[in-house]
Each structure stands twice: as structure tokens, then as C-alpha cells.
Amino acid sequence: MSPGIIGLVGPIRSGKSTVSQILVEDFGYLPASNSDLLASILDRMKIEKSRANLGMLGNAIFEVLGNDVLAHYRIRTLGNSRIVVDGIRYEDEIKAYSSIPNFLLIAVDSSSEDRLNRINAKSGQDKDPGRTDLHALKRLDEARSEIEVPLIMERAHARIQNNGDLNNLRADVHRFIRSRL
């Protein structure tokens, strides 16, 4: 039986969205990005979708309603769908998603240098800031939303190393998913 929910955890620009895209395209999962959900709220409010604004909105929501509020929303609206949650950040989310049979958690990791290159390649686009350096990346990794990520990654059912080679990444995702079917 294939998992109803696959959660992805990893640091900023480690490749979670790319793994999510592979699961959507190759295995028929529906995408469920926490960042996209927050971005849609910012859109409706006519507020810029920067990483800083996404962080502030997420912090406000999670501090008031709990770190698991988006997880419980997704579980309530899941129906018969199979989703891949791009960007699990909190232990409370894992507790909520673990109530779903066959929930799988995949850690996506990448070197700081590769992550920095991805941020700089997207400089000024989407939610990424302008060009940055390793010190700025370290500050991003220390944000409230990133603090629990290393601990959650240790609890993952699998760890996929994204070295930037899309074919290898796709093969790793396929191996893991097929081993779970």
C-alpha cells in the first residue's frame, strides 16, 4: 500500500521541492507545500511573497494556533488523495501526520555550498533574497522555522542526498518509494 502522506524535511534549498515534483510527476502525488499555502495568504493580502514575509506569517500563525495547525488542516481535507508535504518544520507536525497509516518522512539534504548556489541562482526570484553568502545562509538556518529541522531529519525513514544531479536524485527517490510499495 502506498503512503497517503509523504513528508519532506530538510534545510532551505536542499531540494525538497524537486523531490516533491518527482513524487507528483512519477507517482501521482498531489503537492502540498506549506510555503505555497502561506504564499497564497500573502497574495490575498497583497503582501510581497518574500522569505522574510513568509517567515513572519508562519511564525505568527504557528505561535498563536500551534506548529501543527497546517498538518491538521491537511489531514482533515485529505480525503482519498495522496499528498507530498514539502517543508515539514516542526515535531508537532510529525505527531499529527503520524496518525495517518503509512506516513513516510524523507529527509532531503545537500551541502551548504550547493544550497548557497541554488539561492544565488534564484536571487531575487520567488521567495529567495538577493545574492547571499555562507554567513547569511547560516542565519537563515537559525530562523525559528528551521531550528527543529536537524532533529526531524534524524527521525526520517530515509535520507536522500541531493548533490545537484537530477537523474541521481530521481533514481534515489524511485528506489526509496519502490522499497515501500
Helix/strand layout:
Blueprint (H helix, E strand, L loop, with lengths): L4 E5 L6 H12 L2 E4 H11 L6 H15 L3 H8 L6 E4 L4 H7 L6 E6 L2 H10 L12 H8 L7 H6 L3 E4 L4 H15 L1
Parallel strand pairs: 1-3, 1-4, 2-3, 4-5
Helix pairs in contact: 2-3, 4-5
How is this structure best described in words?
Helix content is 51%, strand content 13%. By secondary structure, it is of the alpha/beta class. It has one domain (5-180): 3-Layer(aba) Sandwich (Rossmann fold). A five-stranded parallel β-sheet has the order 2-3-1-4-5. Helix 2 (34-44) packs across helix 3 (51-65) and helix 4 packs parallel to helix 5 (91-97). The longest helix has 15 residues, at 51-65. The protein is globular.
Salient structural properties:
alpha/beta; 181 residues; 9 helices; 5 strands; Rossmann fold; single chain
- Would you state the CATH class? Alpha Beta
Total DSSP E strands: 5
The third-level CATH topology is Rossmann fold
Number of helices: 9
pLDDT averaged over residues: 86
Overall morphology: globular
Computed Rg: 16 Å
Sketch the major β-sheet: 5 strands, parallel
What is the subunit organization of this protein?
A: single chain
Backbone structural class: alpha/beta
Low-confidence stretches: none
- Number of structurally distinct domains: 1
CATH architecture: 3-Layer(aba) Sandwich
The N- to C-terminal Cα distance equals 6 Å
The residue fraction in helices comes out at 40-55%
Order of helices and strands: EHEHHHEHEHHHEH
Determine the strand fraction and express it as a percent band.
Answer: 5-15%
